[in-house]
């Protein structure tokens, strides 16, 4: 990218009256340089089977091209038109809830041949129309694509083919999945039952893994079509999203982002988060770190909130703070969903930069400040490269496997991931994400594996070798308990990595009135408590950092550390309070020589950094609080870009509420 992209999603077909010229005038005033269009327009582009109408696309492209605003075109396949369902009802996905009913978006079967035929036709029609336009810089495939729980007879048939390839001998399937239990054994492929009724966690988790592969295939199929038309200087992206808890929270259970992103030239993401008094920047950082890690490169924020829900209207300064927080994680764009607030239908109150009256408002006016700053010094921030020494190992397979046994738990996989990530974020520790197939783990000085419940033996052996060769590893409870087929190990737990961890256990329980003892962490009594889960650890070669403080469980270790080869492995066998987790992580960071100048500050002061195109270090200091904060600038002297003033190491700086400084170091 030659510049930062600052933009919005724009829907001319949603407008209550023609105001395209006025919108462009307001966009130019805010230095908006890109719009995203067309991704939800199938029923407008093709109102009836084979009848095409491109007036909304044409008039927006014509106007944006004249105004010097770039355009990203989305394929419209995530929201199907009524005529398609009328002519082909089976295009709607069959899920565990039964046959889909028309109305919502993302309700189709992405494997249905009729749906794919018409989807390909409309994609080709649009690409033929827009690909040669000079203002079109890239393409977005579909929209927040997932498998949509599709599980009809055709999907079941494909799943059986998938299993037959993985298990040529059906007896191996039965043995590995434990299907003899409750007479679930399958003695003939012809007798294979509908998997939606299964109570077997191995079979159920494998089906969900298979469903995720459908997303990879679907996006690759679209990418192949788009690549036939796109120019060499145009990109292909997709706007991935995350587990949703009213906002973007954790690893997406219905897509393996690492696999699905392989067909893209640049990864894209949608990030939504709490704001006002609840704005922490954690979700911005988490989503950015995750997306940057997919291709180890810069990424696009294709959607983020402007005003959003009524409780997301930002305080003064927050929109700007959020925008630069995206860029500080390696984003090359900040794009709002959406430009204007729509006047009908499901997302009427998911508000854009403009409210329903289309007039200037404080959020829009703050976007003008952002656009001006992107325009003035964005060339120094674009293509920011980051080198992190810490990686978090995440696994879709572990997520799914834990979910299959969630009735025994009062937490989810992503609760553990965020438990770890959030504390590292608050300590200003930059993180990448890796997955079980990552091959370059040796480049990291510290790897954290939260709740790696389901893991193949080769991954666990690789972690042993990583520690033996000098790496630092932190593993949490509920790790290495089953293999990749969710078959519980009959060896000592944690399976295989007990070698580097120097600890084992064969009993676990939910804590009730259990605290920790034997440590010297400076925490309150309340912060010393354990919740949700505890494993009764017995050390083999490890040393105990903390025991359980309980009349019966007091003989068991709770947190341990083990020197193995040239490295150190730490095991956290319980869901400890965040204050305890922070103390454990501080010690680990110090042992790995990763506790440096940026850790002298903690949240709400967040520090991010990277290297720009001139290989100069860019340092961000963010104040995620409603109070002004005095800090001491601790990096090399340089130019503070927002004020274009020199700044020296050790200089005192006052950060306004929700304020920031950005420094380009001189060397």
Automatic annotation (TrEMBL):
Residues 10-375 form the Glycoside hydrolase family 42 N-terminal domain. The keyword Manganese does not apply. InterPro entries: Beta_galactosidase_Trimer, Class_I_gatase-like, GH, Glyco_hydro_42, Glyco_hydro_42_N. Keywords: Glycosidase, Hydrolase, Metal-binding, Zinc. It comes from the Bacteria. Residues 389-594 form the Beta-galactosidase trimerisation domain. The keyword Zinc-finger does not apply. It catalyses: Hydrolysis of terminal non-reducing beta-D-galactose residues in beta-D-galactosides. It holds the Pfam family Glyco_hydro_42M. Its EC number is 3.2.1.23. It is an enzyme of class 3 (hydrolase). PANTHER family: BETA-GALACTOSIDASE GANA, BETA-GALACTOSIDASE YESZ. Belongs to the glycosyl hydrolase 42 family. This is beta-galactosidase. It comes from Clostridium gelidum. The lineage of its organism: Bacteria, Bacillati, Bacillota, Clostridia, Eubacteriales. The gene is bgaB.
């Amino acid at each position: 990218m030659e510049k930062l992209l600052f933009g919005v999603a724009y829907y001319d077909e949603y407008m209550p009256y023609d105001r395209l010229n006025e919108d462009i005038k307001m966009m130019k005033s805010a230095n908006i340089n890109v719009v995203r269009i067309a991704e939800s327009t199938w029923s407008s582009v093709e109102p009836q089977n084979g009848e095409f109408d491109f007036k909304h696309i044409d008039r927006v492209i014509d106007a944006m091209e004249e105004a010097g605003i770039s355009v990203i075109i989305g394929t419209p396949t995530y929201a199907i038109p009524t005529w398609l369902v009328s002519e082909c009802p089976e295009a709607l996905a069959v899920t565990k809830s039964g046959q889909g009913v028309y109305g919502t978006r993302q309700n189709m079967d992405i494997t249905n041949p009729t749906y794919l035929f018409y989807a390909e036709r409309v994609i080709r029609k649009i690409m033929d129309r827009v690909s040669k336009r000079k203002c079109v810089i890239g393409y977005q495939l579909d929209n927040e694509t997932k498998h949509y729980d599709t599980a009809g007879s055709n999907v079941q048939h494909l799943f059986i083919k998938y299993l037959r390839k993985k298990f040529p001998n059906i007896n191996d399937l039965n043995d590995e999945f434990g299907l003899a239990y409750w007479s679930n054994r399958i003695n003939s492929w012809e007798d294979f039952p509908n998997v939606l009724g299964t109570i077997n966690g191995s079979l159920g988790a494998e089906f969900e893994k298979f469903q995720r592969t459908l997303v990879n295939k679907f996006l690759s199929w679209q990418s192949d079509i788009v690549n036939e038309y796109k120019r060499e200087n145009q990109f292909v992206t997709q706007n991935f999203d995350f587990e949703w808890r009213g906002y973007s929270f954790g690893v997406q259970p219905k897509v393996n982002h690492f696999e699905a992103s392989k067909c893209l030239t640049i990864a894209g993401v949608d990030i939504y988060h709490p704001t006002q008094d609840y704005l922490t920047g954690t979700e911005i950082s988490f989503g950015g770190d995750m997306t940057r890690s997919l291709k180890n490169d810069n990424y696009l924020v294709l959607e983020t909130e402007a005003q959003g829900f009524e409780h997301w209207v930002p305080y003064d300064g927050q929109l700007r703070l959020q925008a630069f927080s995206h860029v500080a994680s390696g984003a090359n764009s900040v794009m709002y969903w959406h430009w204007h607030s729509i006047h009908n239908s499901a997302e009427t109150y998911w508000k854009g930069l403009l409210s329903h009256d289309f007039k200037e408002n404080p959020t829009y006016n703050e976007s003008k400040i952002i656009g001006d700053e992107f325009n003035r010094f964005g060339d120094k921030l674009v293509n920011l490269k980051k080198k992190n020494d810490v990686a978090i190992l995440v696994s879709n397979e572990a997520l799914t496997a834990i979910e299959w046994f969630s009735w025994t738990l009062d937490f989810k996989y992503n609760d553990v991931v965020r438990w770890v990530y959030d504390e590292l974020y608050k300590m200003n520790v930059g993180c990448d994400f890796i997955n079980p197939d990552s091959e370059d783990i040796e480049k990291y000085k510290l790897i954290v594996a939260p709740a790696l419940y389901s893991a193949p033996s080769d991954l666990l052996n690789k972690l042993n070798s990583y520690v033996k060769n000098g790496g630092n590893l932190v593993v949490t409870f509920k790790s290495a308990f089953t293999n990749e087929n969710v078959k519980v190990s009959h060896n000592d737990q944690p399976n295989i990595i007990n070698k580097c961890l120097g600890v084992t256990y064969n009993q676990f329980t939910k804590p009730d009135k259990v605290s920790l003892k034997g440590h010297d962490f400076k925490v309150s009594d309340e912060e010393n408590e354990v919740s949700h889960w505890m494993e009764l650890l017995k050390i083999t070669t490890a040393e105990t950092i903390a025991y359980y403080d309980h009349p019966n469980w007091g003989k068991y270790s709770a947190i341990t550390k083990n020197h193995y080869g040239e490295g150190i492995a730490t095991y956290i066998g319980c869901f400890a309070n965040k204050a305890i987790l922070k103390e454990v992580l501080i010690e680990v960071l110090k042992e790995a020589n990763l506790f440096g100048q940026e850790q002298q500050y903690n949240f709400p002061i967040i520090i991010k950094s990277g290297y720009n195109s001139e290989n100069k270090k860019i340092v961000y200091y963010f104040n995620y609080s409603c109070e002004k904060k005095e800090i001491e600038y601790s990096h090399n002297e340089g130019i503070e870009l927002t004020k274009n003033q020199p700044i020296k190491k050790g200089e005192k700086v006052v950060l306004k509420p929700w304020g920031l400084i950005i420094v380009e170091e001189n060397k």
